[in-house]
Amino acid sequence: MKLLCCIFISISIVWADDSGLRYEKDKVCEQLHAMGQPKFKELFIAVYSQKFPNSTLEEVMCLAEEMLKLGEKCCAEGAAADCYDKGATEISDKSCQADSPFPKHPGISKCCAKADVHERKVCLASLHYPADELPSLLEPTNEEMCQDFTQDRIGYSSRYVYELARRHRSVPVGLVLNATGIQTQILEKCCTPTASTPCFLSERFQGRQFNILLRFTSNHCNNNVNLKSYKDGLTAYYGSILNISFEKAQPMVQDFQAGLSKCCLQPNPECLMQKFTTFQQVICNDRYPDECCKSSRAPWNTVLCVQGLKRTTRPPPDTPPTTALCQQDNHNATERFLFEIGARAVHSSLPVISTALSKIKEEVKACCSDPDFQACMTKEDGHVAKATAFLTKSEEICSKYKTLDFPSFKAM
Ligand SMILES: *[C@@H]1O[C@H](CO)[C@@H](O)[C@H](O)[C@H]1NC(C)=O
Ligand SMILES: *[C@@H]1O[C@H](CO)[C@@H](O)[C@H](O)[C@H]1NC(C)=O
Ligand SMILES: *[C@@H]1O[C@H](CO)[C@@H](O)[C@H](O)[C@H]1NC(C)=O
Ligand SMILES: *[C@@H]1O[C@H](CO)[C@@H](O)[C@H](O)[C@H]1NC(C)=O
What we know:
With 412 residues, this protein is mainly α. It has helices at 5-14, 21-35, 37-51, 57-74, 83-95, 108-112, 117-125, 142-151, 153-167, 173-190, 197-226, 230-242, 246-263, 270-286, 299-307, 332-342, 350-368, 373-377, 383-403, 406-411. It binds 2-acetamido-2-deoxy-beta-D-glucopyranose (4 copies). Residues 1-16 form the signal peptide.
């Protein structure tokens, strides 16, 4: 039997679990009944735009429409038991054809060629685009937006969902839909009879918090998907923000990061918001009854606030790395070693810290199979030296960026 190609590409990421097809169909039908057709289609435009950010809106729409048709046909009462699976297989066959109207992905043909059903499933579900950023959207004028919107409301919403989703590939799709809902509400209110500037100003101000939330969430989820050693980076980062030890920082961050891995890919944002709430409680209980922990702040906003706090420097570590890092049962020794390095980078960003730490981590592993561990770790042109130099340079530039005024920084 051919497998659910396209459907699986997205839904398996989102909804499928080991219980397989039955579960997927139930979920799809549940969504369709709960949301109604237009919202259901919008949901799938968002899902596929995240999954295929380089596809055109037309390709994405085509697939979303097929999904809607499949749902309408097979979720209806009295539909044949194999209706859904059959239809899904047809879509999959179609998407494996060279001239398919559906989104293309460089890895699709490799997956479609797999004979084993399970392997193909895994292959399709794991397709993803690299982290390339798309160029920012040019903000049209209020008049242009109103014109597009009033001419074709649904078309406007679809395009908005598409553009937003392909630029926020790793967040719960619900957030993209919420942001789109906010945008169309603003237009609804401010475009009649003609674009009203004061209305846009005040409405945008209201919607600002949500935009910050979307960007904030997108950063966390993207980092979690794309950065190696993000957990080590986060641990070091919170170690220096909260001025706490490795022993305290690691379990705290571990929970938070596991939450990101679990919740970022769920369609519903609630899971992620709950993780921010838990993290807020941990941070605020422990030591910050201050500005960032005021009860008026939303949990995610506490996290945002804490990340803006000044980080605390600490004295250099007293011992050089030893082969203790290589012992299998002393697993956290490497993490502690990375923490000691990362927590001293008090000016650099999380992606910079995580990237440097991932290089060092790889090198520790490599050096552990070198007869002379010490020499390997301290090689002058080795990865440890390079990553350390990279961090030092970043610290230097970022601290100047923070202390100098912009013209002086630019001159430098
Ligand atoms: C996707 O588009 C971006 C921006 O246009 C481009 O840089 C990137 O190479 C494309 N990726 C693929 C896999 O086609
Ligand atoms: C998103 O929209 C849904 C439905 O309108 C609403 O229940 C939810 O609270 C919104 N989520 C956020 C984070 O604003
Ligand atoms: C950071 O923690 C250390 C050890 O607990 C303490 O000695 C130091 O004063 C703290 N620094 C700041 C700025 O709170
Ligand atoms: C490493 O730390 C984690 C989190 O604190 C803990 O769950 C795990 O048991 C530790 N591993 C070892 C080998 O000590």
